[in-house]
Every structure is written in C-alpha cells, then in structure tokens.
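Retry 2 of 3 after timeout on previous attempt. Resubmitting structure tokens to design endpoint.
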C-alpha cells in the first residue's frame, strides 16, 4: 500500500465541533484522484483538516491548492503591491501565490509590530471577505513556531452557529446583508495603503448576506467576516446603534466555546480550512520568538445568498 492511497488515509476527529487530523498522506507527493476525493469528503465533514510532519516547499503548498480549485491572490496584498508597499518581514516571498505570515521585521528579527499582523492577537474573521468573491479556503504551513504555546489558531463552526440561533435572532437577520470593511488588517490595524474610516459612509467593500449557502452541502452558515471597532463592518439594512447591537449578539453567539477547536502549532503542521463554514482567530504571539508560516488561498466561488435561494436547506 503506497503512502498516498485512499485506503491508507486515517481521519481522526478532534472531538470538538470542528476539525480532524489526517494521517497516511505525504503532501510532497502527487495526490491521486481517489485520495483527493477522500480528503474532500473529510474536509466537507470536519471543515478543518490538520496534517502533521509535512516537510513542504512553497511549490508543494501551491500545488495543494490546485487539487481543491486553484489559487487565489490575497486581496490586501495585491493592493499593497499596486502602491509599492512590500510585504512584512525579511525574506518574505515575492511569489503572489504564497505569502508568509510572520512576526519578523525587515532585519529578520521577531517584533511586536511590522507591516503585517506582527505578533498581535487576531480577532475572529473569515479570510478576505472584503473582496467580492472570497477564497474557498486556506492552506497554512508552519515553518517556525514559538516554543511557549503562543500564537494558537482557533476555529468555530458556523453551520452549528446558524442552526442553533434562537428563533428571534433568525428572524432578526432574515434578509439582512453586511458591508465588509477592508480598511484594517486582521489585527485591527489600518492597512498601510488605507486610511481609517471616520464614519460608515467612508467604508467601502462588498456587500455579502449575513447567511450564505455552502455550494457543496446546501447548508446554511453564518457569514460574519470581520468585526472591528465602530465605524466598520455594518448591517446595510440597520445602520448605527440597532445594527451594532445585533452584530454584538451574533458574534457572541457564533464564537461560543462549544463551537470552537483550538490548534496548538508544531513545526511542519499544515492546516486546511473551509472559509465558507468556519471563522478563525489567533492568540497573541510572543514577540521575542520567531513565528513564520506559509499561506496560500484556495480560489473562491461566488457567495450564494440564503435570501435568494428558496430551496436551500434551512
């Protein structure tokens, strides 16, 4: 039995609301169609997949995205490049298919602040919801990880979050849409190519439904994106205080511990998550230790609104 055969794959659930470890796959080798089909099935069931001890190069990570739909450039990174702002950290990739998520400065030293997210805590979000067609998912591979259990990544299941909404909240969000703010990084710092909005009228970005339909499962999932300090993402049909109060309730509900799994990184771990059905966040990183991960985004499919799909699963 070869390393990459469907029969060799083990799927070990985390026991939480999301996540499973995949064993019996070498991601440096070609993935046959039956292996991709088995991994796709596991991904659909568990939403986040963990592969350990994968000794990968950037080309391997890009190739992985091809098995699941192809690569999609990061929106904010493209915008920074267009105005001549280079990526954060010494040695960052110039390949637009890969970007390094690191806390390094331009001298290669760990730091609290850099042009990216540095060592800051990252709030709950879905990747790139500030573009019209967000990525389907993300691959994130760990090269260097602090040895003190800082910089953990957390995921929460947005299928369950929607299913377990109270009837009152389901009624409150019916037909609602959000404007997604692209002015700030995932660490709630203004992008170097942007300025801080002073009012909701200054926020620009796509408008997405508060509930989306997963194209493969037909299930409904809450689709909340980023929630920053006012003024930021807002509910189009409910400006200002009323909308802010509703968003407070939604984020508090969607990020409850019962929906969450926490991943404690080890070097050579790679995670694969479904951007359409989970949110994620990161705990703060020890700014005295290096943390370097390599990321590629999986090409997205247009957001399917729950409000425009009458036959979708409820």
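Retry 2 succeeded. Sequence:
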């Amino acid at each position: 039995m070869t390393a990459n055969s469907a029969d060799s794959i083990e799927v070990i659930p985390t026991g939480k609301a999301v996540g499973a470890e995949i064993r019996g796959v070498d991601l440096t080798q070609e993935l046959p169609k039956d292996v991709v089909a088995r991994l796709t099935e596991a991904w659909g069931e568990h939403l986040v997949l963990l592969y350990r001890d994968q000794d990968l190069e950037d080309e391997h990570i890009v190739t992985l995205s091809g098995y699941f739909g192809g690569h999609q450039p990061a929106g904010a990174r493209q915008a920074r490049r267009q105005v001549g702002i280079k990526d954060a950290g010494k040695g960052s990739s110039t390949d637009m298919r890969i970007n390094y998520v690191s806390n390094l400065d331009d001298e290669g030293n760990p730091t609290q602040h850099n042009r990216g997210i540095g060592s800051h805590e990252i709030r709950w979000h879905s990747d790139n919801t500030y573009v019209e067609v967000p990525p389907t998912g993300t691959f994130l591979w760990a090269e260097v990880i602090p040895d003190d259990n800082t910089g953990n990544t957390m995921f929460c299941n947005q299928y369950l979050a929607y299913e377990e909404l109270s009837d009152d909240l389901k009624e409150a969000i019916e037909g609602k849409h959000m404007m997604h703010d692209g002015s700030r990084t995932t660490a709630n710092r203004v992008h170097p190519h942007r300025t801080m909005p002073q009012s909701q009228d200054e926020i620009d970005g796509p408008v997405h439904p508060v509930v989306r339909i997963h194209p493969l499962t037909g299930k409904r999932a809450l689709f909340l994106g980023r929630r920053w300090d006012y003024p930021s993402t807002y509910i189009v049909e409910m400006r200002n205080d009323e909308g802010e109060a509703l968003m407070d309730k939604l984020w508090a509900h969607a990020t409850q511990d019962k929906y969450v799994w926490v991943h404690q990184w080890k070097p050579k771990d790679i995670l694969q998550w479904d951007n359409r059905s989970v949110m994620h966040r990161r705990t703060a990183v020890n700014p005295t230790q290096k943390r370097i991960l390599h990321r590629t985004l999986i090409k997205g499919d247009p957001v399917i609104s729950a409000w425009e799909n009458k036959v979708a699963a409820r």
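Attempt log closed. The chain has one domain: 6-308.
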